[in-house]
Amino acid sequence: MNKPKYVYLDYAATTPMDQRVIEEMNAHFKDTYGNSSSLHSVGQKAAQTLVKSREIVASIINANRADIYFTSSGTEADNIALMGVALKNQKKGNHIITSAIEHHAVENTCKHLKKSGFDVTFLPVDNLGLINLEELEETITKNTVLISIMFANNEIGTIEPIKEIGEIAKKHDVIFHTDAVQAFGKIPIDVNEMNIDLLSASAHKLYGPKGVGMLYIRNKGIREGWGKYIEPIMFGGGHERDMRPSTVNVPGIAGFAKAVELAKEEMPKEIERLSRLRDKVIDFVLKNIEDSYLNGHPTRRLPNNVNLGIRFIEGESMVLDLDGQGIATSTGSACSSKSLDPSHVLLAIGLKPQEAHGSLRITVGRFTTEEDIDYFLEKLPPIIERLRKMSPLKKGKNH
Amino acid sequence: MEHFKNPRNMGEMKDADSVGEVGNPVCGDLMYIYIKVKERDGKEIIDDISFQTFGCAAAIATSSMITELAKGKTLEEGLNITRDDVAVSLDGLPPIKMHCSNLAADGLKKAIENYREKQK
Ligand SMILES: Cc1ncc(COP(=O)(O)O)c(C=O)c1O
Fold first, then answer.
1. Domains and CATH numbers, chain A
2. A200 CA from centroid of ligand 1 (Å)
3. How far apart are CA A154 and CA B59, in angstroms?
4. What is the reported pTM?
5. Partner B contacted by A397 (CB < 8 A)
6. Which terminus of chain A has a smaller tally of CB atoms within 10 A, N or C?
7. Domain count across chain B
8. A231-255: pLDDT as tens digits
C-alpha cells in the first residue's frame, strides 16, 4: 500500500483548520480590523460581524443570540461558568457537584474552589464512564448552587445523560453547566430541550482557530438577567456585555462562526461517516489483537472517538512508534504529561493503574479517509507485537 | 530515540545467572535486567545482559543503554554505573524522565546483588 503523507488521528486534541475557515478569517483580518466598540464605520462593521457570528453560533444549540458570550478559549468559558456562579451565589449556598472525569479546565477550577472553602462533590462514574442519575439527585442539598457535568468526555468519548441531568437540575432549581467542548458541532445539542443554563465550547475542536471559545449563558428572564446568578471574573472594558472584557477578537470569532456553519451543514453526514470509521477500528482491534478492550461506552459514544486498552504495554511507546510511521495518536498515559500519574478518567472507570498506562486514543475527523484507517490498522499490530516482546508483563503473571 | 527505536539486548534470558526486578507497573514502569556472569583473569565479568521493560519510551531507551554500558564490565564497575552515566550516554533526558534512568541503574544493581547473594 502507498504510504499516505501523514495520518492525523488526534482530532480530540485539536483539529487542523478548514481551508474555508482560513479564507473567512483572512478576509476579516484585512477588512474587519475595527474595534467593535468604536462608533465609526470600521468599528460598526466589526460590530455587525460579531452580531452575525453570534447568530450562527447560537443557532447550532438552539439558543438566543444574546446569550452567546465569546471568550478566549474553552478553558476560559469553563472558568467563568464555575467561578462566576460560585462567587455570585455564596449567600445562597457553597455546594458544587461535578464528575470525576471532567477535563482539567473544570476539574482544576473545582479543586481551586474547594481550596478556597467551597464544598465540591466529584461524582463517580460507572465502568463505561456514565454518572448515576439517582446518585446525582441524592447528592443535591439546599446548599447546592451548581451542577457541572461534561457533555462528552475527551478521553473515552462517553456521552453523559445531559437531558436527564437538566431535568434534575431544573426540578431542584440548581444551575446546570456543561462543558461541551468535545460534543459541540459533532452531535446535536439543544439548550432548551436539555435545560442547559451554561455551556462551554471551543473553536479549535471544530476546524476553527485556537484561542477562541464561547460560553452560553441562559438569560433567566429579562428582569433577572444573568446578573442574578453569575458574575464576571475578569474586569476591564464593557465588552461582551460586561461578562468578558478585552477588545473582541473579531476575525477569530468570524472564523469560529464559519466553522460552526460548516459543522451544522455536515453534521448528519459526518456522524454517519465518522461512526463507521470509528467502528471499523474498534471491530478490527478487538477481533485481531489479543488482550485488547474498549474503554468507554459501546454505543453512547462520540462518533469520532476510539479508546483502546492494550494489555502488557505502555501507551506512550505505542504513540511514539506510531509517530515513527507517520501516524498521530494519543494516550491517557502518564508520561505524556508533566505528571507521572495515570489518567484520572481511566482510573475513574475502574482501570488498574497498569491498565490505564496502556491506553491508546484514536480520534478521527473531517479529513480522515478510509485509506488513513487502513494504513493505521496495517501498522498497529506489528507495533504492539514488538512492544509486547519487550515487556516483562505477560498473560497469567499477576501484576 | 535511537535506543527506543532499536533497543539493544532486548528480551528474556532463559539461562541468566541473576535477574534484577525493579519498578512497579502501577507507576507505569517495570523493568527486568538479566545478567550472565563469567570469570576472566580472576575477575567477575558481566558476560551477557538483557532487559525487559513495561514503560514509556524513556524507560525502554534507558534499559537499552544500561545493557550497553554494562556489557563486558566487572561486577564492581557495574555497581558504579549511575543514573547520570545513563542519562549522559543518551545525550540527556528531560528532568521528568530522570526516574527512568534511576530505574535502569537500580535494576542492574539489583541483578548484581542478587547474583552475589546466590554465590554466598
Ligand atoms: C472537554 C474539554 N474541555 C475543555 C477543553 C479546553 O479547551 P481550550 O483548549 O479551548 O481551552 C478541552 C480541550 O482541550 C476539552 O476537551
1. 7-15+267-390 (3.90.1150.10), 19-260 (3.40.640.10)
2. 9
3. 27
4. 0.91
5. no
6. N
7. 1
8. 999 999 888 988 999 999 999 999 9
